[in-house]
Amino acid sequence: MTNKLRFILVLAMTFACANIAAAQAIGFVNNQNSNSVDFFGAVGSNGGILNTTINFDTALLGLLQSTLYAPLGVNLAATGIFSTVVSGVGPSQVGTTAPRSFGEGIHPESKYLGTPGDFQSTGCFAPGCGGSLTISFALPVLAVGLFTIDLYNPPSAPHVVTLEAFTGQNGTGASLGRFSSASFNFQQNAMYFMGVLSPAGNIGSVVFNDPNDAVNGDVIGIDNILFAPAPGRMVPPPIDVSGKVSVTQNGFGRNRATGLYVATMTVKNTSNTTINGPIEVVLAVLSQRTYPTAIALSSS
């Protein structure tokens, strides 16, 4: 099979509108048993669709890789106890102070962000027992939320954590609002959801902040980060970057199971500059007998 193909690589570069005004965001923190349900409903009402794949199930145990979810356009910058991926049901501390809440259920055994130390009975009072998690997006989004695990925040012994949204990446730009956790004791290992939504679809990042609890020694975990891309964001025409790459392809081989001819094409950046995605490959000048049916992409 000797079909001669011409490959054109097209880079679709998406730019956020620069003149979106900073508007006050809506927080979902007050209904400790149904914050996520309210959040889901609000996202749908604003034309958004939630991405629920950031659950750390595929992460390696140990130091969190900030680019773990880069293919989704998400960067994670963590400090303190949230710099580590651990596995379990949660910190499992044993505070009994009222009011207590089961939140949105007990966290199942799985991977999450938290400290690898065992502070079930003793608590953790060192400065490093707090931390922050900054979630930045390649393109501004409509809404972001996450689940905390094992938070101890009764009114009589508060350990208030906050979620703040910004128009820029990495906690920069205008603040769209900061929201504080509800005053309940979620031990042991109950999940409490905190979310934020901006109808303008202009959230560039959110910062979750957990100050060190030097009084109670409370430590918490984070799991299941949810976000909804801004609906209807305009995408400009693609830019041809064929001159910055080389393209190689192996020969076609017939897959006996499917009857299709399959080949592998490699696109390599040969320039001195970074080519940001998403990337599209366009096949042109195909013979009349060539009918591509599907393309599988991988990167390295």
Folded structure, characterized:
The model is unreliable at 1-22 (pLDDT under 50). The strands form 5 sheets. Strands 2, 3, 5, 8, 9, 10, 11, 12 and 13 form a 9-stranded antiparallel beta sheet that branches. Helices cover 4% and strands 36% of the residues. It has 2 domains: 1-17 and 234-300, no CATH class; 26-229, Jelly Rolls. The protein has one helix at residues 35-45, and strands at residues 6-11, 26-28, 51-54, 62-63, 74-80, 84-88, 110-113, 131-149, 162-166, 175-180, 191-197, 203-210, 221-229, 239-240, 245-249, 253-254, 261-262, 265-269, 279-284. The chain is mainly β and 300 residues long. The chain is built from 1 helix and 19 strands.
What are the defining features of this structure?
300 residues, mainly beta, Jelly Rolls, nine-stranded antiparallel sheet, three-stranded antiparallel sheet, 4% helix, disordered N terminus
Strand and helix map with partners:
Blueprint: E1 6-11, E2 26-28, H1 35-45, E3 51-54, E4 62-63, E5 74-80, E6 84-88, E7 110-113, E8 131-149, E9 162-166, E10 175-180, E11 191-197, E12 203-210, E13 221-229, E14 239-240, E15 245-249, E16 253-254, E17 261-262, E18 265-269, E19 279-284
Antiparallel strand pairs: 1-14, 1-19, 2-11, 3-13, 4-6, 5-8, 6-7, 8-11, 8-12, 8-13, 9-10, 9-12, 15-18, 16-17
